[in-house]
Design goal:
Blueprint: E1 4-15, E2 18-23, E3 35-41, E4 55-59, E5 69-74, H1 81-87, E6 94-102, E7 111-118, H2 122-134, E8 139-147, E9 167-172, H3 175-185, E10 192-196, H4 199-211, E11 219-221, H5 228-232
Parallel strand pairs: 7-8, 7-10, 8-9, 10-11
Antiparallel strand pairs: 1-2, 1-6, 2-5, 3-4, 3-6
Length: 238
């Protein structure tokens, strides 16, 4: 396993409690849309065993041509040891990234694509949308639906409806409106549904989609292949 140590080159305050850390790209570091990485702070590998409290699994919110590795995360006032240290880091400080992989690249199967997310989960979808804007081959259209009760919606300069690009962005601030809209989107029985959020959020969305006769193979999750049955294999009759 190769560990890349790199420096923070910019910190962007996206919204209250949400920051994007832009990191320098190591020379041979590559990734694709929908990628996640292990993001670690100094000292995580100082002892005999890695200090897991200094490591987090994070989505990369940028594409390679943007020349920075973007990590977008929520940091609340009361937060974990990891987030407390991260909150105090500055431009020029070093962090580590390793074990990078994409579970949710943009599928190009001549289908409609629906991106379902909660809050900062939208960061995972930012590169997919940019990739679609650059190359719309074999994607009919893309619809993003995001719920954020804070109403501090992210990346509104990108997640903005563009009929000429066959892209729709929708933001809601309550669960009732959100799940009603998921049901409406599920009227497309051939669509591909990507979901990003907490495990509870994933399960609630999957339940709604399955009730609308969306098949497990149409549902894309940011999970390892061996984790998928845990979410997608359940009997609707139970």
């Amino acid at each position: 396993m190769k560990i890349y140590w790199t420096k923070i080159n910019k910190i962007i305050e996206e919204a209250p409690e949400i920051k994007t850390y832009l990191l320098d790209c190591p020379e041979d570091f590559t990734w694709e849309e929908g990628s996640h990485t292990h993001f670690a702070l100094k000292g995580f590998n100082a002892g005999d065993k890695p200090n897991r409290s200094l490591v987090r699994h994070m989505s990369i919110s940028t594409l390679p041509h943007e020349n920075s590795i973007g990590i977008t995360t929520r940091i609340r006032e009361q937060c974990s040891e990891f987030k407390t240290i991260l909150k105090n880091l500055e431009v020029g400080d070093e962090v580590a990234i390793f074990k990078t992989h994409s579970n949710v690249p943009l599928k190009r199967g001549d289908k409609n694509v629906y991106l379902l997310s909660a809050g900062v989960g939208l960061a995972t979808f930012r590169p997919l949308v940019l990739d679609y804007f650059e190359r719309a081959d074999n994607v009919n259209q893309v619809h993003s639906l995001n719920i954020d009760s804070s109403k501090n919606f992210l990346f509104t300069n990108i997640f903005e409806s563009a009929p000429d690009k066959k892209f729709t962005a929708q933001f809601v601030d309550n669960r009732k409106d959100y799940y009603n809209e998921v049901k409406n989107l599920a009227a497309d029985k051939e669509g591909l549904f990507y979901i990003v959020g907490s495990d509870e959020f994933l399960m609630q969305n999957i339940e709604v989609l399955r009730e609308q006769c969306i098949k497990p193979e149409q549902i894309m999750l940011d999970k390892r292949e061996d984790q998928l049955p845990e979410f997608l294999s359940f009997d609707l009759s139970v």
